[in-house]
Design a protein that fits this description.
Blueprint: H1 2-20, E1 22-28, H2 44-55, E2 58-64, H3 67-75, E3 81-86, H4 89-92, E4 96-97, E5 102-104, E6 106-111, E7 131-135, H5 141-146, E8 150-154, H6 157-166, E9 171-175, H7 176-186, E10 194-196, E11 206-212, H8 219-235, H9 238-250, H10 253-258
Parallel strand pairs: 1-2, 1-3, 7-8, 7-9
Antiparallel strand pairs: 3-11, 4-11, 5-11, 6-9, 6-10
Helix pairs in contact: 2-8, 7-9
Organism: Chitinimonas lacunae
Keywords: Signal
Protein name: Substrate-binding periplasmic protein
Length: about 270
């Protein structure tokens, strides 16, 4: 009898523990090294989301899809949030944003052997009238237009770098880690010919957030529950440690010695 009671109590508490880990649906797409469906254990942003949800007693359930579909799912309340997203005015009219999860640094990539590359980049007016390749949907599109750049739209990030390599674009704007990941994985033989300007695209830091639904049931309470733990994770130094691990995996000592500017920059 006593054993039955003990087992009953254990089962009860076990059930409560499972129930406490509320499942929360999230939409996302492929954006390595931040989000990688086939290697989530190495995806920087996904790992930060996992840690924040764990601290909040929640369990994220990922739905990998296209970026337009991810936004539509958030807007319709089919998922609590999508990630990672930068804040802009158009999105702010339709969505809420979590506390910043990670700070992104966007830079201009160029190809060394192209003679028409500008000698410097200090402000976007330096690229007025020049061809810059990018997929649609990035926060800096309006910035490019306002300063007179000619935008060559591509279907994805890899295609933008291919245009750059072929000389059909003069620069690519991209997050620094994403750019070097794509170059290292898709154009390894040409890696030493790619480089970045020292000046970042934006003087201000570009936080990346969860894009939160206004239609998902209980979204406001979930957001409040998560924001404080997201701040804790960010302040713990975990983002910097994950980025350092990525840079270590991506570094190539032989190339770094011959080409000190090549590869992920500190």
């Amino acid at each position: 009898m006593g054993i039955r009671i003990i087992w009953g109590i254990a089962a009860l508490y076990g059930g409560l523990a499972v129930a406490a880990a509320q499942e929360v649906p999230l939409a996302t797409g492929e954006w390595p090294p931040y989000v990688m469906q086939k290697s989530p254990e190495r995806a920087i942003f996904t790992l930060l989301v996992e840690e924040a949800f764990r601290r909040a007693g929640l369990k994220p359930v990922y739905r990998y899809t296209s970026w337009p579909r991810a936004e539509a799912m958030v807007e319709q309340g089919l998922v609590f949030a999508a990630f990672p997203y930068a804040h802009n005015e158009e999105r702010a009219r339709r969505f809420d944003f979590s506390s910043p999860v990670l700070i992104s640094r966007s830079v201009l990539f160029y190809y060394r052997s192209h003679q028409h590359v500008p000698q410097r980049f200090e402000r976007f007016s330096d690229f007025a009238g020049r061809q810059i390749a990018t997929p649609r949907g990035y926060w800096y599109e309006d910035l490019l237009r306002r300063h007179g750049a000619q935008i060559s739209y591509t279907s994805d990030e890899q295609s933008a770098f291919r245009l750059l390599m072929l000389g059909r674009a003069e620069a690519v704007v991209q997050d620094e880690l994403v750019g070097w990941y794509l170059i290292g994985n898709h154009f390894p033989a040409q890696r030493s010919r790619f480089a970045t300007f020292d000046t970042p695209v934006s003087a201000r830091e570009q936080p990346l957030h969860l894009l939160v639904s206004r239609q998902y049931p209980g979204a406001a309470a979930l957001k409040a529950r998560l924001d404080s733990v997201i701040d804790e994770v960010r302040q713990s130094g975990m983002p910097e440690k994950l980025i350092a691990k990525f840079r270590l995996r991506s570094s190539r000592p032989d190339e770094a010695e011959a080409n000190p500017e090549v590869g992920p920059q500190p």
